[in-house]
Amino acid sequence: MRRWLFLFILPLLFSACQQNGSQEMFERAMRLWQEQKHEEAVQNFVALTTAYPDDDLVDDALFWVGNLYEHYLGNPDQAVRFYRTLSKNFDSSPYHHQSMTGLARVYSDQGDDGRQKALLIYQKLQQSKLKPKDYEINQIRLSRLFIEARQYSKARIELKRLIQTTKSQAILPKAYHLIGQSYYMEGRLDLAEIAYLEIDRRFDFGRPTLASAMSLAQLYEEMDQLQSAISIYESIIHRLEQREVFYQLASDRIIKLKSRQRQTSKS
User: From the first residue on, what is the mean pLDDT of each consecutive set of 10 residues in the chain (267 residues)?
Assistant: First the structure.
C-alpha cells in the first residue's frame, strides 16, 4: 500500500517542483527585463524553454524572447526565429496572434520580399477566428502594407470592406484617411483632395481627422494653393490646445506660408 501511494505521489511532487522551477526562472527573466538587462533576460527565457519544454510558460517565454530581440536588441533574424517557433508550435496559445503580428512587423521592414511575406501573414490572420477589434486592426495593417507595396487598388478594397462593417469610431477615420493616402501615393492628387475633404466633413472637422487635415494642407502646399493650405492649418489650430504638437506644426506652417505669400506679391 505504501509503495503504491509513493508511486502515486511522486509524479505530483515532480510536477510541483517543475512548476516552481519554471515559475522562478520566468520571474527572474522578467526582473532582468525590467532592469534593462535584456541579454540576460533572453538567456533566462531560453533556458526555461530548454529545461522545461512541456511547461505552460514556454509560449510566454518564446514571445518575450521574440519581443526582446525585435524591440530592444535590434536582432530581426532572431526575432523571426522565436516568433516563428511560437506561431508554428503553439497555435492555441494566447500569444499566437501577437507572435504572428510580430513576425509580420519584422518582415515588413525587410524590403519587398519581406513585405510580401508580411502581407501573406496578415491575409492568413484575416481568415482565422479573430476578435472583432483584432480583425479591424489587422485590416488596417494589411491596407497600409498594400499601400507600401504600391498595390493601391487592393488597399482600397480592404479599406472599403472595413468601412462597411466596422462600428468603431476610432477605426473609421483611419480607414478613410488611408484611402486618401492611397490616392496621394498613386499620384492621383485630385482624388486625394476629394477624399481628405470628405473625411473632414464626415467627422465635423474634429480631432479624429487631424491626420487627414494635415495631409490636405500639405497637398495644397505642393499644389501652390497657399491660401487654401493656410485655411486648413487655421482650422487645425481651432481644434487643439496650444501645447499640442499639431498646434505648433500648424502655427509654424501658417507663418512660413504667409511669408511666401508676401514674397510672391512683391515679385
Answer: 40 46 92 96 95 93 96 96 96 93 95 94 90 92 95 96 90 94 96 92 87 94 95 93 90 94 80
Closest CA to 103 of 124, 75, 130, 81: 81
pLDDT value at residue 7: 38
Map the chain to HEC letters. CHHHHHHHHHHHHHHHHHHHHHHHHHHHHHHHHHCCCHHHHHHHHHHHHHHCCCCCCHHHHHHHHHHHHHHCCCCHHHHHHHHHHHHHHCCCCCCHHHHHHHHHHHHHCCHHHHHHHHHHHHHHHHCCCCCHHHHHHHHHHHHHHHHHCCCHHHHHHHHHHHHHHCCCCCHHHHHHHHHHHHHHHCCCHHHHHHHHHHHHHHCCCCHHHHHHHHHHHHHHHHCCCHHHHHHHHHHHHHCCCCCCHHHHHHHHHHHHHHHHHHHHHHC
> Whole-model pTM?
0.82
Domain containing residue 245: 163-267
Q: Single out the residue of 265, 227, 232, 266 nearest to residue 249, CA to CA.
A: 232
CATH number at residue 99: 1.25.40.10
The pLDDT assigned to 19 comes to: 55
For the chain, how long is the longest CA-to-CA vector?
107
Domain boundary among 129, 155, 186: 129
* pLDDT (0 to 100) of residue 14: 40
The verdict on residue 259 lying in a domain is yes
The answer to whether residue 229 sits within a structural domain is yes
Domain tally for the chain? Answer: 2
